[in-house]
Amino acid sequence: MTEDFTEEEKRGFYKAIYSRRDVRSHFTSRPIEDGILSKILNAAHHAPSVGFSQPWNFILIKDQDTKKKIKESFEEEKNRSSQLVEEPKKSKYLSFKLEGILESPVNLCVTYDPTKFGPFVIGRSSIPEAGLYSVCCAIQNLWLSARTEGVGLGWVSILSNDTLKETLDLPEHVIPVAYLCLGYVDEFAEKPDLETKGWLPRLELKDVVYFEKWNDKENKNWEKIQNMIKDNLDYA
């Protein structure tokens, strides 16, 4: 564990990051092998967590009736949220393929249990949300592991948490954080779907990095990296 990464290993790591996609379509009927699925879950389980609390659980779903209930919730929430945007964006939004609930072989709900290991968790007393952040770290591990194994993953956030809790029999205190669709795909897109379709642009790195204080982009103590960032080193 103390050995440095080789150049080949580093390239593989960055390849997983830059080629990761939120997959909504192109799922195939090929099942995910149990060995691969267990590796992906184990990668998620080795994420960092506040106070080593490991506050996540993973609910694996194949049952078609369950998937159909979740898909119904998606349709309801998509239609409801479309009322928040005016034409022509409304029609464009409604035309997007934003989930693969029925098409993907495996659905996965990742949850947050704030009661694990009791009420006191080191590091969570000042920032209670740190527990949720930990679950998000697990999801990112899972996502990158899936991409490394050639498995597509899509995060469906247009859902009712109340429906998830009822359909999956979640205890009252357990919070569903992510509903994911997993499966092998025909292809991984070159760019994110919403970028390709012109919904939103990718921001340049120079637009999101500040130095020492909010909105300070010209701090002389950081001049070298400022110039590198302005060169827009983008490996995607």
From TrEMBL:
State the Pfam families in the record.
Nitroreductase (PF00881)
Specify whether NADP is a keyword of the entry: yes
Q: Which GO terms describe its molecular function?
A: nucleotide binding; oxidoreductase activity
Which Gene3D superfamilies does this one have?
NADH Oxidase (3.40.109.10)
The record, for PANTHER family, names: IODOTYROSINE DEIODINASE 1, NADPH NITROREDUCTASE
Q: Per its record, how is this protein called by name?
A: 5,6-dimethylbenzimidazole synthase
Alphabetical UniProt keywords: Flavoprotein, FMN, NAD, NADP, Nucleotide-binding, Oxidoreductase
Question: What region holds the Nitroreductase domain?
Answer: 17-184
SUPFAM superfamilies from the UniProt entry: FMN-dependent nitroreductase-like (SSF55469)
Q: Which gene encodes it?
A: bluB
